Amino acid sequence: MKEIGLYVHIPFCRSKCLYCDFNSYECREGDSEDYVAALLRELDEYQKRYDFIYKTVFIGGGTPTVINCFLIGSILEKLSPFIMSGAEITMESNPGTVTFENLKYYRSLGINRLSIGLQAWQGELLRGLGRIHSPEDFLHVYDCARKSGFDNINTDLMFALPNQTLGMWKETLKKVAGLGMDHISCYSLILEEGTKLYELYREGRVQLPDEEADREMYWTAVEVLDSYRYGQYEISNFARKNMECRHNLIYWRNEEYLGVGAGSHSRLGNIRFWNFRDIDSYVSLIRKGKLPVEGQEELSSDVEMWETIFLSLRLNEGLDLQGFKSRYGIDFQGRYADVINRLTAQGLISIEAGRVKLTGKGKDLSNSVFIEFL
Ligand code: SF4
User: Fold this and answer.
1) What is the span of the domain harbouring residue 9?
2) CATH code of 138's domain
3) Stretch 334-344: mean pLDDT
4) What digits encode the pLDDT tens for the residues 89-133?
């Protein structure tokens, strides 16, 4: 049996946030039943073809909590024979779509990690992003989640938002850390073409913080969360001791995973493949007895090595030189000597105790560092 991670995509939301370019759609009546029936068939197809056992499961979206909770139950029922004992099973949720009863039910299904999308503590910022909830809704979900037995809870936050000041960002961090959250993700808002926010920005109706303010907010997060004893283990992720997200570590360590659902990506061996994003195409292909795969690519060893390098460098633990040699049979310091010397001289990376790591300056310029190894 092969141990891998499993990602399950639920592409429905109550309504579309203004900045969102994820594969998510406003949930229409009846959509989710047909979709989950297709998802269960897709899982069957993989179980027939491969001998997988899942060491982590991540039910993401979209907003998985927007669909009938018994549909989530049917997914877990299908998966349960193939989930390893002690596996981390995460589900994403958004305030305004969850009740105490539902949370108790999710917990009874074996879901042991809940991720709650908050983004910001200030109602006016949430409204400006098109979020459907208030900070009070978030507090209610958090309280219900603790009472229903979740002892591993993440929240997602965003900075560099329209009209967000440094003071607002600090308040958000302190409020969330003060609650005793187990894990906190902090991502900078990326303005994506095709979103409503992008249009508003182009029309000059929305102002965004500049690059300098973005970096100031990032380093404020590192400092504030450190003062609340959160360990930073990835460029954008912070956790209490031993509460790192095991599923996301699979991605950052460039290990194998299967993704099911519309638009999901998978990496098995040296093949990466992805499903149709569009829900109708996804469902209709499965109904015809086909896998809903839209495309695939074979990863050359050079590409795979580069991905391992840049993903590992995102982690605070960095790239393990001995592990790299065992995996690829290549001496990292020999092969990349020129790049290492240049980046070290520029103060962007360091090598300590057999690991290559980004420095603070390297984190600010991480994309430029990654490209150097390409
Ligand atoms: S809740 Fe998340 S996935 Fe849904 S529209 Fe908003 S940002 Fe996108």
Assistant:
1) 2-252
2) 3.20.20.70
3) 97
4) 999 999 999 999 999 999 999 999 999 999 999 999 999 999 999
pTM greater than the 0.90 cutoff: yes
Residues 36 and 153 in one domain: yes
CA of 323 to the centre of ligand 1 (A): 37
Q: Over range 174-190, report the average pLDDT.
A: 97
Nearest to 238 by CA among 225, 228, 227, 253: 225
Ligand 1 atom nearest residue 130's Cα: 6
**Residue-wise pLDDT tens digits, 347-369:** 999 999 999 999 999 999 999 99
Whether the pLDDT of residue 27 is over 90: the answer is no
Size of the chain, expressed as the number of residues it contains: 374
- Residue reference for tokens 């302190």: 174
Q: Does a structural domain hold residue 285?
A: no
Residue 28: per-residue pLDDT: 77
Residue 243 one-letter amino acid = M
Ligand 1 neighbour 17 (Cβ under 6 A): yes
350, β-bridge pairs:
357
Q: Are residues 317 and 247 in the same domain?
A: no
Tokens of 76: 């877990």
pLDDT at 29: 73
Answer yes or no: is the C-beta of 63 below 6 A from any ligand 1 atom.
yes
